[in-house]
Amino acid sequence: MLRCYGTGSVCASADDSKNSSSPTDTLNQEIIINSETLSKPLLLEEYSRELINRIKQRVSNFQLLEKCDTDIKLTGSPTQTICYQAQENGANIKYLLAVSLHVDRAYYLIYRSELSQYDRSLNSAKNVFRSFQIVEP
Fold it and tell me: So which domain of life are we looking at (predicted)?
């Protein structure tokens, strides 16, 4: 079961590994929710390319995956999905990232999990993504 909690709009986390016996299964499955103010108007595709370039600089062994879930919409708005793999502390990690732009902000949600555990909570993560709402102050 994917459990999520968050504070504000910054982060939610899930941990399915409490009863795990394998060292590679100790990685938490996480959903990270973030937003940032755009410094200039951008198209969704432009912002997604910029985000991919920033990710490439932060992770090792970045591999963009051709097959990616595209049936995800954040807040009912146009959404770009990006799937990639990378390594963290010797573990192979798979990511599903969904990006949407609203007014002058970019919103993105990331599901990350150790590769062998990724499919286990993918549907729950997608449900969290689909339920994401932007609440205007």
Answer: Bacteria
pLDDT tens digits, the chain, 137 residues: what are they? 333 433 333 334 444 444 444 444 445 789 999 899 999 999 999 999 999 999 999 999 999 999 887 788 888 789 999 999 999 888 999 999 999 999 899 999 999 999 999 999 899 899 889 888 887 76
Which domains are present in the chain?
Answer: 6-131 (3.40.1000.10)
> CA dist 114 to 12, 28, 91, Å?
17, 8, 7
pTM of the model: 0.78
